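Weekly puzzle thread! Below is a chain. First person to post its structure in token form gets bragging rights.
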Amino acid sequence: MIHLHTQSAYSLLHSPIRIEQLVLKAASEHKSAVALTDKDVLFGVPSFLRACRACHIKPIVGMEIEAKENEENFGFVLLAKNNTGLQSLYKLSTMAGSRPLAIQDIAEHQNGLIILSAGIDDTIQAVLEQEDEQQLNRILKQFKEIFDTFYISIAMNDSRYRARLNILLKECAARLDIPTTALSRVLYLNEEEVNDLKVLRAIDKQTSIEDPTLNVSYGRFFRTDEQMASLYDAQDLEESERIAGMCSLTEPFEQSTLPSFENKLGIDSRTYLIKLCKAGLHKRMNGQIDEAYVRRLEYELEIITRMGFTDYFLIVYDMIRYARSHDILVGPGRGSAAGSLVAYCLGITHIDPIENNLLFERFLNPDRISMPDIDTDFPDDRREDIIRYLTEKYGHEHVSQIIAFSNLKAKQVLRDVGKAFGYPAREIDQITKLIPSIQGIPMTLRAAYEGVPAFRKLVNSHSKWQKLYEQSLRLEGLPRHTTVHAAGIVLSSRPIVEVCPLKNVDSLLEACQYTMENLEPLGLIKMDVLALRNLTTIKRILDNIKKDHGTQIDIFKIRKDDRKTYELLSQGDTVGVFQFEGDGIKSLLKKVRPHTFADISVTLALYRPGPMENIPLYLRQRQDPQSIHYLHPALKPILQETYGVMIYQEQIMQIAQVIGKMTLSQADTLRKAMSKKKKDVMDSYRQTFIAGALSQGISEAVAQKIFAQMEQFAKYGFNKSHSYAYSSLAYIMAYLKANFPLYFYQSLLDSVTGSAEKSAEYIFECTKRKVNILPVSIVHSTGSYEIEENGLRMPFQAIKGIGKSIYSKILSERGKEPFKDLFECMSRLQAAKVGENTILSLIDAGAFDEFGINRITLRENLAQIRNYASIVQVEEADTIHFDFSLASRPRLMRYEEKSFERAQREKSVYGFYLSEHPIRTLRIKRYGQVATLADIEDQLGYVRVLVRIVRVKPHKTKRGDMMAFVNIEDETKTSEAVIMPRQYEPNKEALKAGALVLIEGRKEKEESILANKLTFIDLDEFA
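Winning reply:
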């Protein structure tokens, strides 16, 4: 027999079965076929088909679904007989994702489907329990009439009660001549795994496994043939085999292509693309076109058209054209597309690939057929406009997003399972805190157990932790909920639902149910439409400059030799600059001291986990070019810009071309094989390379050395096209920061409103740069940062709890006429329904400072002031006016304000210190003898500093112990402290952003203190 009703973990939180395990289980039971029938969705189909192929077992693709008829609910299992049936499943699954299905929906889309009753708790089950044969007869007769291939399922015979009811069901089916089949719903593979299901159901319902209302299905495991034979009639078991025999999917499945681009001239796409490129090249070169550009353009166009990608380029070009015509800033390009002259001519990228030695073959290799990948950046507040345009142009059915899954990762699964077990939140935090979050390194439970001694010790310390760990381990990695790919958009010439099911994940656009890597075989091409916050920042800067000065800056035409920009970069003054904000890359900038655009790109390319190994060599040879040794003179023109170090992938390709006489297509294949360590490919190309070297008189020994060097550096080589593209964006931001600092900080701070940590970082940066930050003002503030004299006025929404719904009342009231004085202002705000808590926050933020009364006095007298405001407020009909003659203004009791208390209240409403840094106050009160970070800037050896922690970055040592790199600041500058395991372990709970600490240690190199002793300071002592 064949199990025809099997759900996987893709029936989210309704089954713990992993696809591969399901197929392996069926194979181990010697099944000829295995079915996948998740509830309403087809998420798991691609991996299911791959797993079946690997195990040489027939896949049966299906779906469990519910449908409504009047007030009756029915459950069905739909199985695809063939590829037509698979398409029917696509359509029904898509429909089920957006609305409840009707019986008629299934009837209209039943082509190629086998339809089985699901044997679940539905109307059929209800009439069976009532033994209402007349109703049962009516329902089954209706289904027989409207469904072409219909079976009644005899399900759950492991229940004596259900088995008795199934006798009646079989009798009725026999009378109506409807075939029956055995259907055992499978939700987990082995009987004991019901506990996994129970935990998943508890996670889904956000409750405990002890909750009596929790619906858990017992006995729903993958039974053996012998177990099934003891429960079901032989004829029904044999029928499941016959149904499986009726199902046969044939690959390849239905495919699509990109939509054809319709141009305004009505000519074919190839001719139109050539026409656009020639016009674009003429414009780029100001009519002075070098022959090298003509040859390169002809070469690229020939490859693009031969590979069938003309429409792809035109669609991207048109999308960018639309953006620019609607005042939407578009990035300079990213990724390997910057190596294409066609992309440059079309305005898709803004880096000249010939001038900068960028290679087209790194983007499109004619010898290795793969889809082009042009990623385009847009401001994060305009991305939806682009998607809306694509949808309107190509049709809603032809455009979709791409689904992604949020999985139960290490910390999340511990939290979810812990909650299901009823553990208190504080206890769950106790164990999750022990799992380090290391950027770029995915941490699993097993890796934490093996590599983090404190985690392993806690797990082994008590049975409750062991139970939590073991259960979490069983569920780790299962999909928890759906989301969408951050950037991917799919365009299709056919309605997408014909080649892939869709799911309504958010309101913007439906998403393909298959993840990104499963779309290309279906001819569905992904385009990355990326939302980049930095572009939003740049656009606001440009708009504000234009508004105030009437100057329109074209960021793609700014000089690449601006002295102020290179000074800023050389000083590492790059807070807020795209890709150059981290302490490590700032330190590298100070060492490189870039003075050309190529230097910026090299810095960006070097600061990556692998290429970092080459930093000392690069700096040494940059410092002393005479020390550079080239294995052959032909390498010098290729490696000169990077001082003899192979940094870029394109350099590897050029060396293969020049020394090994290989085509650039071959060189790209070799480059990829080297980076992926594909020995067979490398060995075959090694012979080609050596032969090419020998043919031009280069000795085999030298050629072998060069090849070995290429092999060594290719592991870490960075994509030069991508580096140049991103360096272009970084240069633009550095240029704006260097030349328009007020506008830069205004836009930068607006972009992080709501993030106390980033706001504090940027405000500290402003104070260092002598940019005055003015507190929120009831008279001057708006909804965003505003330039005021030589400073920036903070917006209302910088205060915690004051959103647009609140500050719009203030702006509306102020718009009627300016506030005259404190009492008139307070009266009007109270009448405008601005609440007391908001007023208190405004007081603590300094919003009323300009009325000349200190903040503590206002707080202590607020009740009197609001009472006065109530008296002078006069309501007549639908209007409110004020009669200030009705009461005398209250006499305010004056209080002395303490600066430290004032700073603490500011911190409570802003999330950071504004008018006075606490370190400065502490230094005055107690720590006058402790040096500032500025004092020890050039000092090495023993140091003692009083600092505030800005950010903590945990790191695992080679021995597996945890340590941390900690960004610190005082009132003078920022720096870094290194906390080794001996200090980290006892202090990890206290090491948090915002903590004040006295650090004693050694300064062995610039900008870094190796901490030997940490003394944390309790601010309450100074209140």
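Puzzle host: Confirmed. Bonus trivia for everyone else. The domain at 19-191+203-246 is CATH 3.20.20.140 (TIM Barrel).
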